[in-house]
Amino acid sequence: MRRISVSEAKAKLSELLRCAEQGETVLIVRHGRAVARLTPPSPWPDGASEDGASDELVQTVDLDALERAGTVRRPPKLPDTDLLERPELALPCTDGLLDAMLRDVEADRDER
């Protein structure tokens, strides 16, 4: 995965978009810390396929809403940028996966 500074990304946006179209992922960093990741289009997590059609099996996760509701708690610091480079950690929330995860969180709370 290529790393690029914010200023360089601004200057080379068209080139970076072409790279994403060809399947490359680019990590954009500011002062050595990851701030964004430019990736090729995917049918998830936003629920839309490449042709813009909605996919009923995909759920969008609103972490802000879950945090406000007290369902999840964000870590006190940002994760290490190495974690952002592990695509196997990116899983689609399909077929009730999110609901099952939230039930597990609630069950853990009830046990305490």
Helix fraction bin? 25-40%
Secondary-structure element sequence? EHHEEHHH
Radius of gyration: 17 Å
Number of helices: 5
Q: What's the main sheet like?
A: 3 strands, mixed
Proportion of beta-strand residues: 5-15%
How many structural domains in the coordinates? 1
CATH C-level = Alpha Beta
Q: How many strands appear in the DSSP assignment?
A: 3
- Our measurement of the CA-to-CA distance between the termini, rounded to an integer number of angstroms, reads 41 Å
Which key phrases capture this entry?
single chain; alpha+beta
Secondary-structure topology with pairs:
Layout: E1 2-5, H1 6-11, H2 13-21, E2 26-30, E3 33-38, H3 63-68, H4 81-84, H5 97-111
Parallel strand pairs: 1-2
Antiparallel strand pairs: 2-3
Quick gist of this model?
By secondary structure, the protein is of the alpha+beta class. It has helices at 6-11, 13-21, 63-68, 81-84, 97-111, and strands at residues 2-5, 26-30, 33-38.
Walk me through this protein's architecture.
- With 112 residues, the chain is an alpha+beta fold.
- The protein has a single domain (2-111), classed as YefM-like domain (YefM-like fold, 3-Layer(aba) Sandwich), CATH 3.40.1620.10.
- It is built from 5 helices and 3 strands, in the order E-H-H-E-E-H-H-H.
- The chain has helices spanning 6-11, 13-21, 63-68, 81-84, 97-111; strands at residues 2-5, 26-30, 33-38.
- Strands 1-2-3 form a 3-stranded mixed β-sheet.
- Strand 2 and strand 3 (33-38) form a beta hairpin.
- It is elongated.
- The protein starts with a strand and ends with a helix.
